[in-house]
Amino acid sequence: MVPNKNKRAAIIYFPGRVDLKKLRSAVESVTTVSFWEPSLWLKTEASDTGAQQALRAIAQKATHIVVAGGDGTVRSVLEAVALSGAKVTVGIVPVGTGNVLARNLGIPLEDIRTQVQRALLGNAHWLDMGLARIILEDDTRVEMMFAVMAGMGFDAKVMLNTDPVRKRKLGWIAYAESGFKQLPMIYQKLSIQVDGRESRTVRVLTLLIGNVGWLPGNLSMMPDASLDDGLLDVAVIGPRRIWDWIDFWTRVTVGNNVVRTTRAGRKLLDATANVKTLENLTSKKIRVRPEDLVELQIDGDAVGLIKEVEFESVPRAVSVRS
Ligand SMILES: [Mg+2]
């Protein structure tokens, strides 16, 4: 048999958290049988969290990137691939417990063989990403892309306060829990402008801008978010009183999983939604100007205090296999 000259896998992996032996055998069971070119194995470093590895893979003519890592590694790889414009597909082998993108793509969280098969042989489909144009506290401008969601205010502060081990062990949902116990509830005044329309000022605890909607534990603050509709979903969250919180938690759990599945339930939830609990919007572009400096997180990594940020959907940014 002649080697399959067209296909080459590059595996970008987070060394401490991957069972390399199992991963290798799963990859080889696909690439050897199909006579692919020899695979590239690129591990992430503390200073190089995936982007450089993705560019190296592209330079060495990889056609299929597999990223075995957590949300941060996945974000770095997807951003680099999206910006490169290279014709390469990305598959995800979820590691750790957050894995918000993998969950939303329906990738199984156990069973490395199935994960690898889907990453290499699954159907390729386009995925939107979010782009954040950020003005930092010191007026530096940075651009970052995200696959899952960005959060401002309380949500971002929780990311700063949760220690890495806990973050790794429990995933995103740990943040909320640790946050409620340790952090004072500070409500921020934000001026938000959606798709160039008139700005509106809201007082919120947190503002979430999502590319995907479902969080671990079947929680959703944006149940209608779709990965490929060219839109970002916005959740404006500002409960103040205990009954608002009860309403909020009911909405994100039972509300979206049970009530929302019927048309009447959906109507009821939408009609009673407002910023005192949870209000959902969709937009192509949303600009946020906080009255005071506010914390920002992107796919679970704290960015720091910012002066202003504009979020835009980048439709069909990357091709993903799942
Ligand atoms: Mg969308």
Structure overview:
- It is a single chain.
- α1 crosses α5.
- The relative contact order is 0.16.
- The chain folds into two domains: 9-122, 3-Layer(aba) Sandwich (Rossmann fold), CATH 3.40.50.10330; 129-314, Tumour Suppressor Smad4, CATH 2.60.200.40.
- β11 and β12 (219-220) form a beta hairpin.
- The chain is an alpha+beta fold.
- It is built from ten helices and 17 strands.
- The protein is 31% helix and 34% strand.
- The chain has a 15-stranded mixed β-sheet that branches. A two-stranded antiparallel sheet has the order 11-12.
- The radius of gyration is 20 Å and the shape is globular.
- It has helices at 20-31, 51-59, 71-84, 100-104, 112-121, 154-161, 164-170, 172-182, 242-257, 263-271, and strands spanning 9-13, 40-43, 64-69, 89-94, 124-136, 141-146, 149-153, 188-194, 200-204, 206-210, 214-215, 219-220, 232-237, 278-283, 285-290, 294-298, 301-321.
- The structure holds magnesium ion.
- One of its GO terms (molecular function) is ATP binding.
- Residues 1-138 form the DAGKc domain.
- It holds the Pfam family DAGK_cat.
- InterPro entries: ATP-NAD_kinase_N, Diacylglycerol_kinase_cat_dom, Lipid_Phosphate_FormReg, NAD/diacylglycerol_kinase_sf, YegS/DAGK_C.
- Keywords: ATP-binding, Kinase, Nucleotide-binding, Transferase.
User: If you compute it from the alpha carbons, what radius of gyration comes out, rounded to the nearest whole angstrom?
Assistant: 20 Å
Shape-level CATH architecture of the largest domain: Sandwich
The H-and-E topology, N to C, reads as: EHEHEHEHHEEEHHHEEEEEEHHEEEE
* Overall pLDDT level: 84
Based on helices, strands and strand pairing, what is the structural class? alpha+beta
Largest sheet: 15 strands, mixed
Tally the helices: what do you get? 10
Query: How big a fraction of the residues is strand?
Result: 25-35%
Q: How many domains make up the coordinates? A: 2
The CATH topology of the largest domain comes to Tumour Suppressor Smad4
